[in-house]
Amino acid sequence: MIGSKEHLAFQVADDAWSLELQKAFGKRAGDVRYTPRGKGEPGTALRTAYDAREAARIAYDRSCGRDERGLPIELEPYDRDGYTSGSDGW
User: What pLDDT score was predicted for residue 4?
Assistant: First the structure.
Protein backbone atom coordinates (compact mmCIF):
# COMPACT_ATOMS: atom_id res chain seq x y z
CA MET A 1 0.00 0.00 0.00
CA ILE A 2 1.32 3.44 -0.86
CA GLY A 3 2.56 5.18 2.25
CA SER A 4 3.33 1.92 4.04
CA LYS A 5 6.74 1.14 5.49
CA GLU A 6 7.18 -1.43 2.70
CA HIS A 7 6.46 1.20 0.06
CA LEU A 8 8.95 3.62 1.62
CA ALA A 9 11.59 0.87 1.86
CA PHE A 10 11.05 0.05 -1.81
CA GLN A 11 11.39 3.70 -2.84
CA VAL A 12 14.64 4.06 -0.89
CA ALA A 13 16.05 0.82 -2.33
CA ASP A 14 14.99 1.78 -5.87
CA ASP A 15 16.67 5.17 -5.50
CA ALA A 16 19.86 3.50 -4.24
CA TRP A 17 19.86 1.12 -7.21
CA SER A 18 19.28 4.06 -9.59
CA LEU A 19 22.26 5.85 -8.08
CA GLU A 20 24.49 2.79 -8.58
CA LEU A 21 23.25 2.49 -12.16
CA GLN A 22 24.19 6.12 -12.75
CA LYS A 23 27.65 5.52 -11.30
CA ALA A 24 28.23 2.44 -13.43
CA PHE A 25 26.65 3.50 -16.73
CA GLY A 26 26.27 7.27 -16.67
CA LYS A 27 23.79 8.53 -19.27
CA ARG A 28 23.19 4.96 -20.43
CA ALA A 29 21.77 3.91 -17.02
CA GLY A 30 18.21 4.00 -18.29
CA ASP A 31 19.12 1.80 -21.24
CA VAL A 32 20.49 -1.00 -19.06
CA ARG A 33 18.21 -0.65 -16.01
CA TYR A 34 16.02 -3.66 -16.80
CA THR A 35 18.59 -5.75 -18.66
CA PRO A 36 20.86 -8.39 -17.12
CA ARG A 37 23.68 -5.81 -17.06
CA GLY A 38 21.56 -3.62 -14.80
CA LYS A 39 21.74 -6.24 -12.05
CA GLY A 40 25.51 -5.92 -11.81
CA GLU A 41 28.12 -8.58 -11.21
CA PRO A 42 28.16 -10.55 -7.93
CA GLY A 43 30.09 -8.71 -5.24
CA THR A 44 29.65 -5.25 -6.77
CA ALA A 45 27.82 -2.29 -5.26
CA LEU A 46 25.42 -2.43 -8.20
CA ARG A 47 24.46 -6.05 -7.45
CA THR A 48 24.10 -5.30 -3.74
CA ALA A 49 21.75 -2.40 -4.54
CA TYR A 50 19.80 -4.51 -7.05
CA ASP A 51 19.38 -7.37 -4.56
CA ALA A 52 18.20 -4.94 -1.87
CA ARG A 53 15.72 -3.43 -4.32
CA GLU A 54 14.37 -6.85 -5.28
CA ALA A 55 13.93 -7.83 -1.62
CA ALA A 56 12.12 -4.55 -0.96
CA ARG A 57 9.94 -4.99 -4.07
CA ILE A 58 8.90 -8.47 -2.98
CA ALA A 59 8.07 -7.24 0.54
CA TYR A 60 6.05 -4.37 -0.91
CA ASP A 61 4.22 -6.67 -3.33
CA ARG A 62 3.31 -9.04 -0.50
CA SER A 63 2.01 -6.12 1.58
CA CYS A 64 -0.29 -5.33 -1.36
CA GLY A 65 -1.51 -8.92 -1.74
CA ARG A 66 0.77 -9.86 -4.65
CA ASP A 67 3.30 -12.67 -4.96
CA GLU A 68 6.99 -12.25 -5.84
CA ARG A 69 6.06 -11.96 -9.52
CA GLY A 70 3.64 -9.11 -8.77
CA LEU A 71 0.58 -11.25 -9.43
CA PRO A 72 -2.45 -11.25 -7.09
CA ILE A 73 -2.33 -13.87 -4.38
CA GLU A 74 -5.43 -16.03 -4.51
CA LEU A 75 -6.64 -16.92 -1.07
CA GLU A 76 -8.62 -19.89 -2.35
CA PRO A 77 -7.60 -21.73 -5.49
CA TYR A 78 -10.27 -22.02 -8.17
CA ASP A 79 -10.88 -25.08 -10.26
CA ARG A 80 -11.33 -24.74 -14.01
CA ASP A 81 -15.10 -24.21 -13.60
CA GLY A 82 -14.45 -21.14 -11.45
CA TYR A 83 -15.45 -22.57 -8.09
CA THR A 84 -13.33 -22.57 -4.98
CA SER A 85 -12.03 -25.93 -3.90
CA GLY A 86 -14.52 -27.73 -1.72
CA SER A 87 -17.54 -25.74 -2.91
CA ASP A 88 -20.48 -27.23 -4.71
CA GLY A 89 -20.85 -24.26 -7.01
CA TRP A 90 -23.55 -22.47 -5.06
Answer: 85
Residue 44, domain extent: 5-63
Neighbours of 20 (CB within 10 A): 22
What one-character DSSP code corresponds to residue 73? P
Sign of the dihedral through C-alpha 18, 62, 67, 61: negative
Contacts of residue 59, defined as CB under 8 A and 6 or more positions apart, other chains included, come to 6, 9, 10
Centroid of chain to Cα 16: 14
Residue 88 lies in a domain: no
Number of domains, the chain: 1
The predicted-structure confidence for 1-22, as pLDDT tens digits, reads as follows: 666 899 999 999 999 999 999 9
Q: Is residue 39 part of a domain?
A: yes
Residue 76 within any structural domain of the chain: no
In angstroms, the CA 26 to CA 35 distance is: 15
Q: Kindly state whether residue 82 falls inside one of the protein's structural domains.
A: no
